[in-house]
Amino acid sequence: MTTTDLYRFSDSSRWDGVYEVVECRRALSPSALPDIDYALNPYGGCEHGCVYCYAPEVTHTQWKDWRVVRVKANITDRLTRELPGIAGTVGIGTVTDPYQGAEARFCLTQQCLGILRSRDVRIHLHTKSDLVLRDIGLLSSMRGEVAVTITTLDERISKMTEPGAPLPRRRLEALRELTRAGIDTYALVGPVLDHLEGEEGRFVEALASTGVRRLLLDTLNSRPLLAGRLSRMGIGGSAAARERIRSLAEAQGMDVRDVFSGKR
Ligand code: SF4
User: Fold this and answer.
1) Residue 34: is the preceding peptide bond cis (ω within 30°)?
2) Protein residue closest via CA to atom 6 of ligand 1
3) Which of 50, 62, 185, 244 has the most other CB atoms within 10 Å of its CB?
């Protein structure tokens, strides 16, 4: 597939703005993810439309349905009721982005954070959006950590692979401001795609310039439907780029680990 075709995919796959307001049975679900005891996802589906997203396969959702964002209108009520019975870290955005565009309208993530803070619950929040900066005051008064995903510095590549998400410079700004506010922040570089080959030095320098001192590296998921889609688009992962980023970041004194393995 050519670059022109990828652009066409990007343009035609832009999220069309459909929200579905739903009620959830529970706000928190037990999580097997490292360092997270409970998962909290105020929205179902995601408008960022990343071409490498495997969440639809994990949740047994059709790709087209994944892009209809379900707004869990009663999640704050559920969370308030469930919190007295739990202890541990709550992961926010374990399946979908808690700061996708819907959050600017519905503020469910912000409301959940307020409830979690009132009970001094430790959080682990993960996003691709600089909308997280709206809540920087709230986050800086909570226990926990925040991850911002960044996969490229190239806006053209970002528009192709993550068509609905904020551009890389806005994510660098989010990393910079969160770090400056004293919030425990790290960059999630994942998946490491082959377009980063040859760009590793510039990429690591840009991350280091934000003040962030921790990186988490992720590889491209190989689930069959996803692999087929990416193969048709001519997109692949790169172990070489991942290892080059690791060695450059470690040379800068950063703490570098792999998703799930914790390998340094
Ligand atoms: S931000 Fe995450 S959940 Fe949303 S489309 Fe991208 S990979 Fe999937």
Assistant:
1) no
2) 50
3) 185
